[in-house]
Amino acid sequence: MKKRKSENADDTKQIADDTKQIEDDTKQIEDHMKQIEDDTKQIEDHTKQNKRRQSSWDPNS
């Protein structure tokens, strides 16, 4: 069955739109993953600071 040129153009546009949406979604996921990495690093840094404070704290003073 032959498709008309306009149907092919519509299909091509739909594919382009879907591809753009996938790219946008992928970028959003990458941004979220970066934020999680940053948050994890911040938690690790705070944990290190707390351990240093605890190790220097003298309960007998």
TrEMBL record:
Region: Disordered, residue numbers: 1-61
Sequence ranges of Basic and acidic residues compositional bias: 1-48
Descriptive protein name: Uncharacterized protein
Taxon lineage: Eukaryota, Metazoa, Ecdysozoa, Nematoda, Enoplea
